[in-house]
Amino acid sequence: MFADFKSDGFMYCIILAVIIFVCMQALFFLKKAWARGKELGITTDKLKNAVTSSAIFSFAPAIGIAVTVITLSVALGYVLPWIRLTVIGAIQYETTAAIAALEAAGLTGGISQPVTDPEIFSAIAWVMTIGSILPLILIPIILKKIQKGVSDVASKNSKWMDIMTAAAFIGLIAAFIGRGFAGTGSSKEAIIGDGAGVLSLTAIIASVGFMLFFTLINKKLKKNWIEALAMPLSMVLAMVVVVLINQFLPELAAIEWRY
Amino acid sequence: MNKTYMDKVHTWGRIWCVASLIFFLCIPVAISLHLGVWPRAEIVGKGLAAIAFFFVTGIVEVVAYSPMLGAGGTYLSFVTGNIMNLKMPCALNAMENAKVKANTEEGEVITTIAISASIIVTTIVIAIFVVIFALNPSFSALMSSDTFAPAFQQVTYTIFGSLAATYFVKHWKISIFPIAAVTVLLLFVDPGIGVLIPVGVVLSMLGAHVMYKMKLV
Fold first, then answer.
1. Nearest C-alpha of chain B: how many angstroms from A189?
2. pLDDT at B80
3. DSSP chain B
């Protein structure tokens, strides 16, 4: 666990500080929003539901994010990727930033080799950090103006605004669903599962199917817990279906129509 | 919306944002001081130049996502990342369950609560599993093995499939065009998800606007 300079006690102190900072911020906003929710007359059940369903929903993707730490751990140890994937950034950005810094230092092995030079490790940390902080500079300056603009439009024509808001969400969802149907893989190599194919289609159909199933059950039973758990359960059950297809029908699972 | 509460959200958010910015910049400073070595500016400069595209997507994300996330949700999400694959679906699901609309104060409260809860759980779960992986390399090998890796590779589709079921059933008329348009676009070019999302959002909003004008919705 404390293999070398990339994973020494000092690095673990940094990640501990990051975890405390991030959780403190989340708790701060949670407390303030909860109090405002009570003032607005939102029921305690609805507020608790928002917490419970989000917490349960986040569990499986969080494990997925932790697994992606492994990808970067060969080159960077566990701690720096852990720090980076806890704060702003996602695996595709962090991997690209790490490779960019390595290549800028003249190393062409990518992230498959351990970084042994402290200067290069430090350079990677700088590139990953600086490359991701622009939103933190922009948001304090422009967010209030954006929110005011949206609020002004909403007050003039709320029906149109409702449709546009739904359309925006649908556009976001369509981007991912479309990728599941016809997106190409993320690298030039033929890696099973990263382009559109049987597995991505299975994931989409299974999750849609399970969600519709739980929605229908909830219409009959009208239980809060079904509503709260429907999405995370649909997600996890769809992941199980993907694992089963991959295990028991591997030739089918390997079919991809986009690489 | 109640101006006092929203004004406070922006004040708190700005303070936390600036604090986060300073804190995150201190991390590479601390690493450099601890290792006793500072990277050459040319290496950092070249590295940043290679990822300049992410500066553009960063701006686009702030403009595109903040109306959907709400103010509190935006301040929180851009500190912890994983917005498209975790924070955004959390916020959408929470608003659906609570039956509140985005761009209302109720929506603001619910998305903030949902994203806060998600951040705490995600941070703790990542910590637990990374420590397990560091202590037990064979467990990390198992999680990234051919048995379980496909599940995590497809997790984003399971998230958005579940969301799709809710949204497309309610808004099927305005859903057909964006899904078809994005799928057809991808047959010719895949610009990557960072570009595809704003393209999908713009196409969807244009299509919905046309249908609204034609009184089809």
1. 16
2. 92
3. --HHHHHHHHHHHHHHHHHHHHHHHHHHHHHHHHHT----HHHHHHHHHHTTHHHHHHHHHHHHHHHHHHHHHHHHHHHH--IIIIIHHHHHHHHHHHT--TTSHHHHHHHHHHHHHHHHHHHHHHHHHHHHHHH-HHHHHHHTSTTTHHHHHTHHHHHHHHHHHHHHHHTHHHHHHHHHHHHHHHHH----HHHHHHHHHHHHHHHHHHHHHTT--
Sign of CA dihedral A183, A188, A194, A200: positive
Task: Tell me if residue A197 falls in helix, strand or coil.
Answer: strand
Dist CA B25 CA B19 (whole Å): 10
pLDDT at residue number A219: 83
Distance from the A241 Cα atom to the nearest Cα atom in chain B, whole angstroms: 9
Map residue A256 onto helix, strand or coil: strand
Please give the residue of chain B at the shortest CA–CA distance from A1: B134
ipTM above 0.85, yes or no: no
Q: Bridge partners of A197?
A: A256
CA distances from B164 to A25, A56, A150 (A): 31, 19, 24
Q: What pTM did the predictor assign?
A: 0.81
Q: In A, which residues are within 8 Å of B48 by CB distance?
A: 100, 127, 130-131
For helices B53-80 and A9-40, the axis angle rounded to 10 degrees is: 70
Per-residue confidence at A1, pLDDT binned at 50, 70, 90?
low
Q: Do B165 and A103 touch (CB under 8 A)?
A: no
Q: What phi, psi does A256 have (nearest 5°)?
A: -130, 140
Among A118, A120, A117, A133, residue whose Cα is nearest residue A84 = A133
Q: What is the mean pLDDT of residues A237-252?
A: 90
| Residue A184 at interface with chain B, using a CB cutoff of 8 Å | yes
Q: Are the C-beta atoms of residues B126 and A66 closer than 8 Å to each other?
A: yes
State which residue of chain A sits closest to B100, comparing Cα positions: A42
Instruction: Give the whole-angstrom CA distance, residue B108 versus residue B73.
Output: 8
With tokens 């553009």, the residue in question is B56
So what's the pLDDT on residue A6? 86
Can you read off the two tokens belonging to residue B59?
A: 């701006």
The minimal CB distance from B116 to the residues A29, A62, A70 is found for A29
Contact A174 B178 (CB under 8 A): yes
**Among residues 77-116 of chain A, which lie with CB inside 8 Å of chain B?**
78, 82-83, 85-90, 93, 96-97, 100-101, 103-105
Distance CA A209, CA A251 (A): 23
Q: A160 and B126 in contact by Cβ < 8 A?
A: no
Burial of A184 (0-12, 13-18, 19+ CB in 10 A): middle
Q: Do residue B209 and residue A30 have CB atoms under 8 angstroms apart?
A: no
